[in-house]
Write a structure and sequence with these properties.
Layout lengths: L9 H7 L19 E5 L5 E4 L3 E2 L7 E2 L7 E5 L6 E5 L5 E7 L8 E5 L4 E5 L3
Antiparallel strand pairs: 1-2, 1-9, 3-4, 4-8, 5-6, 6-7, 7-8
Keywords: Metal-binding, Oxidoreductase, Zinc
EC number: 1.8.4.12
Cofactor: Zn(2+)
Length: 123
């Protein structure tokens, strides 16, 4: 039997379930650069490692790669951006951008802090 999803606060639910966005530069994980693992707040699936996190100065945590198979890309309803969701529970994470040349991988996963939990390597 699979474990039920984690309970979400109203603010977490607004972002994760209703595709909201937290205000820039307000998320707890925006500037976190410690070694560790980023997991989905709703289902605890592993999403990103700290190895791929970088400082983009955009106001949200940024990653230039995801754990293989962890993130699904979905075109936004307006067709202008690509939404990223957890592959396991389909909770909203943020958006992905390509071609900005911010890293060698030339991709930026712009993720809401509130959509994730951070597990330090020494935890």
């Amino acid at each position: 039997m699979s474990k039920p999803y984690n309970d979400l606060t109203p603010i977490e639910a607004d972002v994760i379930l209703n595709k909201g966005t937290e205000r820039p530069f307000t998320g707890k994980l925006t500037d976190t650069m410690e070694g560790g693992l980023y997991v989905c707040r709703q289902c605890d699936a592993s999403l990103y490692t700290s190895e791929h996190k970088f400082v983009s100065h955009c106001g949200w945590p940024s990653f230039d790669d995801e754990i293989e198979g962890a993130v699904k890309r979905v075109p936004d309803a307006d067709g202008r951006r690509i939404e990223i969701v957890c592959a396991k529970c389909e909770g909203h994470l943020g958006h992905v951008f390509e071609g900005e040349r911010l890293t060698e991988n030339n991709i930026r996963h712009c993720v809401n802090s509130i959509s994730m939990k951070f597990i330090r390597n020494d935890a």
